[in-house]
Each structure stands twice: as C-alpha cells, then as structure tokens.
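hi!! sorry for the late reply, been swamped w classes. u asked for the two structures so here they r. pasted raw, havent cleaned anything up. first the sequence of the first protein and right below it the tokens
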Amino acid sequence: MAGAVTSLRSWRIFFCGQASILIRKEKTQEEFFHTFNVLHQANKQIIISSDKPPRSIPTLTERLRSRFEWGMAIDIQIPDFETRSAIIETKASQAGIELPRETVEYMASNIKTNIRELEGALNQLLAFCEMRGVTPDIQTATGLIGDVRQARPHHLTAKQIIDRTAKHFQIEPKDILSPKRDKHIVVPRQIAMYLLRSELHLSFPKIAIELGRKDHTTAIHSIDKIEKAIKLDYLIREQVADIREKLYA
C-alpha cells in the first residue's frame, strides 16, 4: 500500500473515465475512496467522467458522492454538426486519409447519436476503402452508413418505449399509463411521450391514446416541457439519451 501511495503522489493528473461503471462494486469504491483522498491531500488534479452526475448514480456511497461534488461539474453535450465534422476530419487525417468534404458532411449529418458510433462508421468506411482499393467518396459512405442504420431495429413499438422508460426509472409500465400525479411517475410519463413523438413520430392524439388519455393537450404540454428541459437540464438530457440508446442496443 505504501508503494502505491508513493506512486500516486508522483502523478500530476489522475483521470478516471466512466466512473458510474467502474465503481459499481463496494470494494472498488473503497479503494477509489482512499485513492481520491491521497490525491486530494497531495493537491493533485483529479478528473472524473461519467454519463450521470454523482447524485444520479444509485450505487455510489455518500462519502464518494460528496467528494465528487467538491469539484466543478462540466456538462459535455452531444457535439453539434461542426464538431462532428471536425472529429471526422481529424480522425481521418490521423489515419493519413483526406476525406472529400461532401463525405464528411454526409457522415456528420447522418450519425448524431454518439461519438463511438461516429468513429465506428468512419473506421468501417476507411477499412472498406482500403480493402477494396476505392476512394471514400459520398457513394461509398452512403452505402455503408445505410448498413449501419439498418442494423438498428425498425420494429420499435410504443410498448417497447413505455416499458424501457419504466425500467429506467424503476417503476412499472402500468404506472406510466395510470392517472397518478406523483413526481417520480409524471417525469417518466412525459419522457415516454417525448420518445413516442421523437422515435415513432406519432401524432399527439395517437400518443394520448397509447397512454390511455382522452385529451391530447397533455401530450403536447409534456413533449414541449421535455424538449425545453433537454436544453437546460443535464439530468433530463442524460436520462433521455440513456433510454434512447438502450432502445437501439
């Protein structure tokens, strides 16, 4: 242990990625707690990334949660079109390839979910072109990205969205369909309505029917509220993104 502490004190920066996954086990949290203390007492820089804020990681112990909240939290949002384009160009350049601008723009316009999928599509494109001895033009990119899209299920249903939303919030689907107004049910219900609109493109009356409502103005209000919350509330944005990702996993 003494050797490990000495080694830690020699580090200038400590970076931990995907903290919500790494510290699921109690023993891991115990070790991380002591590591954090050693680094903090030595006035080292600690950087921790996670797909959720500390208060939204249910398995996180209170003492770690409080320490994580000591620092400055920065919300890293989904990259916009310009950023996605820059990432594609940079990654391609690192591989020694200069992509046509129209190929870059096509990929940036059609892959918006996350950077991993964007990089995966780019790697697939570059590997395909190298094996076939062809250029990474817009026609090749169109064919490959079409294949990536087809890998996602096209049979997504309203029930799947409602069930997945309920599972994410650890409630029952019947709670979302019920008239209950408890906050821990209202927010999941609003998110389910938002996803029914964004993923299935259902009309407001159809969304109301799917959730057992007679008046579709509730659906309009709920979807509008979540659309605004996504822009301002980190937690809501992450919850929606997490549910959406699992729907297509």
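now the second protein. again sequence first, tokens right under
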Amino acid sequence: MVSNIVNKKPALPKSSRRARRRPSSSEIVASHLSARVRKLREQRGWSLETLSAACGVSRAMLSQIERGQVNPTLAVTFNIARAFEMSIGELVEMPGLTSSIQVIRAGDRAYDFRGDKDCRVRTLSPLNLEKDVEFYEVRLARGGVLRSAAHFTGTREFLAVQSGRVRIESGEDHEELGPGDSVSYRADVRHAIVNIGEGDAVVFLVDIYR
C-alpha cells in the first residue's frame, strides 16, 4: 500500500525568502562617512560643539550624521571636510571599497551641491574620486550665473551644453555656446558659466586636476 504521507521540507520564514536589497554605493559611502566623521572628531579631542563651530553645521545635524540617521548633502560634507583641513575625497576615502560599479541615483539628494532659484549643481561623480576628477550637472535658470574662484594651478574644465545657450568666461576670454557644443578652458583663473538664453540651460561639467 502506498502511503499518502509526503515528506515536506519545512517552509522558510518569509523574511528568509525575501531577496535582500543590496546597499547602493551612496548608502555604503554614507555609512562609512558617519564612522569617519566621529573617528576624526574624537582623534582631535573635539566635542560636537567644537566641530559645529568649525564647520558651520549644527550640532544636531552632526549627531545625526555620526549615528547614520541622515545622508548629508555634498555642501554639508564639503564644510565638514574643510573643518578637518582635508578634501571631500580624503574625508570619504574608502580603501576597502572593491566594487567596480558605483551608482548615483537620480533622486539621491546627498549629491546636490547647490540648489536655489537661479542655479542647481549636482555632482555625478563618486565622492571618493573627488581628488582626481569632478563631474557635475549644472542647471541655470534664465539669467542665472555660476561664478567660481580660481582652482588649483593646472586645473581645466570640460563642458558640454545639453540645452539652452551659455557664455563661458575664463580670465579675460569668453565664448558663447549652444546645444551640442562643447568647450575646454582654464579653471585656475576666475571663471563663470552664464545663461544668456531665453529659458533654462543645462550643461555637463568635468573638472580635472593636474
């Protein structure tokens, strides 16, 4: 007689059956940054109040960053790095990061460097590469201007216009560009990107340090 009993493997808990989401590169960097900021602060014997005074970021925000509760914007990260007298790349440097793919999602506010009614700048390059190259998306409202002081000696910028019309100023030189145009120019002198069109302008910008 054939038994009707079938040996079944016990069902896995639902939590075990769900595929675990792999952390994004920005989440990995944010987690590393929280521990890095706390370590650097404690090495210097600084309180949160001392670091806050040095970088201009509130004590409450710094506390949240160190606990990994918030993902700081690029501007906040820049101010913290400056307080420690290092670049952003040095602050977020991750020797153990082995993945060959680092993704920055469109909605990741941590990479917004500047955002106001005239100009929005968003970095498109991983923060740990900041010492070598910087890649930005720049959106300028009508009449908007992005002016920059001279960068390190030998720095050049490469720019491509996606939409709108802009004027590039580098020292005493200037050129006007339209959609599809690209240009390279010295960035170790005062320079600017000026929207001269009737609507918004979008450009992609690469800084290379030498």
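hope this helps!! also noticed smth abt the second:
The CA atoms of residues 35 and 66 lie 6 Å apart.
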